TrEMBL record:
Residues at the active site: H125
Function of the molecule: Core component of the MRN complex, which plays a central role in double-strand break (DSB) repair, DNA recombination, maintenance of telomere integrity and meiosis. The MRN complex is involved in the repair of DNA double-strand breaks (DSBs) via homologous recombination (HR), an error-free mechanism which primarily occurs during S and G2 phases. The complex (1) mediates the end resection of damaged DNA, which generates proper single-stranded DNA, a key initial steps in HR, and is (2) required for the recruitment of other repair factors and efficient activation of ATM and ATR upon DNA damage.
Annotated CDD domains: MPP_Mre11_N (cd00840)
Cofactor: Mn(2+)
Ranges where the Mre11 DNA-binding domain occurs: 299-452
Keyword presence, Metal-binding: yes
Bias kind Polar residues: ranges: 583-611
Biased composition (Acidic residues): 613-641, 685-694
Claim: rRNA-binding is one of the keywords in the record: no
Region (Disordered): 533-715
Start-end of Basic residues biased regions: 566-578, 645-659
Name of the featured protein: Double-strand break repair protein
NCBIfam families, A to Z: mre11
Length: 715
């Protein structure tokens, strides 16, 4: 091409679905995605393109590891930062195109020398998530390495509303309008395209010497193409006819040659993935990237093969169609499969371009074993360790169903592709059940659910509720008669506020996802939740109301000084919220049962009482304790017991065998189920020289009450 042609030709290298970080924990395949991306950037540099265009799923994980981020930044920095001039201009409003803190294309930053601009949208793997609605690509954008566009705010009511503003580029006499649409859930985007005015396409303004028809319109999107379920995909016929060229991401099969859509007037290219992420027939086809040259309203595509991609061989066999296999002889099946694997390995080695760097191939055999027995795929693959890259899953067994035989026209890659789960969203559930949401908007709950499930956003529902609470409080505060509302009127008023808020959102450009940016952080949430936990898990107030006795409350207050140390010492059961008494050891239910056996001999009862004191495990308390048992305890003995608990907290661990202990519940309440046992436990410390006969009498008096309450516990 002459210099004049070069000055008017915009050269773009197109790639999609790089999936950086895929299989990063596999010793053999961990570097595959980075090698392919390194080659893509090298091709862009060698071909002297104006910019690199990525169609989503740059990262395989929504939260990529530090290793993946570092390697991605190293590759971009090595190829994108240099002194080469950039020959095109961005003439649109860049603050609208690039929604970051800087609001301009990266090569215009005076502090960076960007020689290879990279433009990218997000895919379904690296889409925005979290409180601030950030993607992993936002990290690269903040580093000034990538121009991140196509990030949408789903405003409006119902399914939402989006507006697509193009990035307007000019190089000489060539003008290009680049539209970007990051991944949106296919079901929702499908409904949006079928809803009038839900998707708005902004066209360039008419300027002097440049009409609207002079712009070459490109769309980059990352969605499912039409397959078995039309509602779970986007049809090409949903797109406007003024588009000239479409880069379709998300589909991994490489269909790089542009295909014209009948009746629409535009062409679609599907570059596919640069690394095989699923072992199906569609992924085994050679990987390419596309060099797109645009001059005026004409374009020229050139496909460039990727040579660093790991070779992948795929085949299918039907055992009943093979003549040399005996259905009753498993060895004949193994021999035939071994022969097929060896042939595929040899075929992959012949395709290797660079003999010095031959990679272990990926091999996948789909075996139809109808009428035959299967073999263990892992055991079969052990003999190919060091010969193939995936020895653990070389074989996949399947049976030909009658339905599959009737529908033989389905494409192989379509049939082998794992079907997505039939997910149900909140909007559909509300519509099916004829429900009316009175406090929280449906689309807010839907977004929160998707963020919680798909993006691991643990604050999604909390942020949704807090945002709507703030909005509702703001609406109610504007009413001068807010203090005069009755309870029923307030509920109606909240419902009216919801309708008003939905109407207000329909007039605002960014509505339904505003709760994602409420400024909530995990640190603030931790502080709030810890305060809630400290304040709400105490049952003292409820216990006070139930008992209704002043001495019991005094005793509880008096023993509160030893609560923290008692918690640390005494192991608890159940939820672990029981409070240990300060001066008394805790008894177990098994120890209480030991008292029943003490009727046989006085010495046995004395030993069981001492055993009770030594056990430190909480016992469940009876909810059927009688109130008169509480009232029988004298307040003077309670106060005396509390003062003794404060002064003799440490001595309780050494003085054993005296039967001093309380039965406490899991929720921190004292067990008032046995009044006679309580009298024994509240006896004075000065009676240390009491003879064995008195102890036997006290224990024998306490037995019927303990036995009866244990029966109540069992009921």
């Amino acid at each position: 091409m002459s210099r004049e042609d070069l000055s008017d030709t915009l050269r773009i290298l197109v790639a999609t679905d790089c999936h950086l970080g895929y299989m990063e924990k596999d010793e053999i395949r961990r570097h595959d995605s980075f090698k392919a991306f390194q080659e893509i950037c090298s091709i862009a540099e060698d071909k002297q393109v104006d910019f690199l265009l990525l169609g989503g799923d740059l990262f395989h994980e929504n939260k990529p590891s530090r290793t993946t981020l570092v390697k991605a930044i190293e590759i971009l920095r090595r190829h994108c930062l240099n002194d080469k001039p950039v020959h095109f201009q961005v003439v649109s409003d860049q603050t609208v195109n690039f929604q970051n803190a800087f609001g301009h294309v990266n090569y215009e930053d005076p502090h960076f020398n960007v020689g290879l601009p990279v433009f990218s949208i997000h895919g379904n793997h690296d889409d925005p998530a979290g409180v601030d609605n950030l993607s992993a690509i936002d990290i690269l954008s903040a580093c000034n390495l990538v121009n991140y566009f196509g990030k949408m705010n789903l405003g409006g009511s119902g399914v939402g509303q989006i507006s697509l503003y193009p990035i307007l580029m000019r190089k000489g006499s060539t003008t290009v309008a680049l539209y970007g649409l990051g991944n949106i859930r296919d079901e929702r985007l499908n409904r949006m395209f079928q809803t009038p005015h839900a998707v708005q396409w902004m066209r360039p303004e008419v300027q002097e010497g440049c009409d609207v028809s002079d712009w070459f319109n490109i769309l980059v999107l990352h969605q499912n193409r039409v397959k078995s379920n039309p509602k779970n995909a986007i049809s090409e016929h949903f797109l406007p006819r003024f588009l000239d060229f479409i880069v379709w991401g998300h589909e991994h099969e490489c269909l790089i040659d542009p295909q014209e859509v009948s009746g629409m007037g535009f062409h679609i290219t599907q570059p596919g993935s640069s690394v095989a992420t699923s072992l199906i027939d569609g992924e085994s086809k050679p990987k390419h990237v596309l060099l797109l040259e645009i001059k005026g309203n004409q374009y020229r595509p050139t496909k460039i093969p990727l040579t660093s991609v790991r070779p992948f061989e795929y085949t299918e066999i039907v055992l009943k169609d093979e003549d040399d296999i005996d259905p009753n002889d498993q060895n004949s099946i193994l021999e035939h499969l071994d022969k097929v694997v060896r042939d595929l390995i040899e075929k992959a080695s012949k395709k290797a371009v660079n003999r010095s760097d031959i990679q272990l191939p990926l091999v996948r055999i789909k075996v139809d074993y109808s009428g035959f027995m299967t073999i263990n795929p892992q055991r079969f693959g052990q003999k190919y360790v060091g010969k193939v890259a995936n020895p653990q899953d070389i074989l996949i067994f399947s049976k030909a169903s009658k339905k599959g035989q009737r529908e033989g026209t389905i494409d192989d890659s379509e049939r082998l592709r794992p079907e997505e789960l039939n997910q149900q969203n909140i909007e559909a559930l509300v519509a099916e059940s004829n429900l009316k949401m009175e406090i929280l908007p449906v689309n807010d709950l839907d977004v929160a659910l998707q963020n919680f499930v798909n993006k691991d956003d643990k604050l999604a529902f909390y942020s949704c509720v807090q945002y709507n609470l703030q909005e509702t409080r703001g609406k109610l505060a504007k009413d001068s008669d807010a203090q005069k509302f009755e309870e029923d009127d307030l509920i109606l008023k909240v419902g009216e506020c919801l309708e008003e808020r939905l109407k207000d959102r329909s007039t605002r450009p960014s509505g339904s996802s505003q709760f994602l940016s409420t400024g909530l952080t995990s640190e603030n949430l931790t502080k709030r939740s810890s305060g809630i936990a400290n304040a709400s898990f105490s049952d003292d107030e409820d216990t006070t109301q139930i008992s209704g006795s002043v001495p019991a409350t005094r005793g509880r207050r008096g023993s509160s000084t030893g609560t923290s140390r008692g918690r640390a010492k005494a192991p608890t059961r159940g939820r672990g919220r029981g409070k240990a008494s300060s001066a008394m050891k805790q008894t177990t239910l098994d120890g209480s049962l030991g008292l029943r056996q003490s009727q046989r001999s006085a010495s046995a009862s004395f030993k069981s009482a001492s055993t009770i004191v030594e056990d430190d495990v909480d016992s469940p308390s009876s909810e059927e304790a009688e109130p008169e048992d509480l009232n029988q305890v004298d307040s003077s003995s309670e106060e005396e017991e509390n003062t003794r608990g404060k002064g003799r907290k440490r001595q309780a661990t050494t003085k054993r065998g005296r039967g001093r202990g309380t039965v406490t519940s899991k929720r921190g309440r004292k067990n008032e189920s046995s009044s006679s046992l309580h009298r024994l436990l509240s006896s004075k410390d000065e009676d240390e020289d009491e003879d064995d006969e008195d102890i036997e009498k006290k224990l024998n008096r306490s037995q019927p009450r303990v036995t009866r309450n244990y029966g109540a516990l069992r009921r």
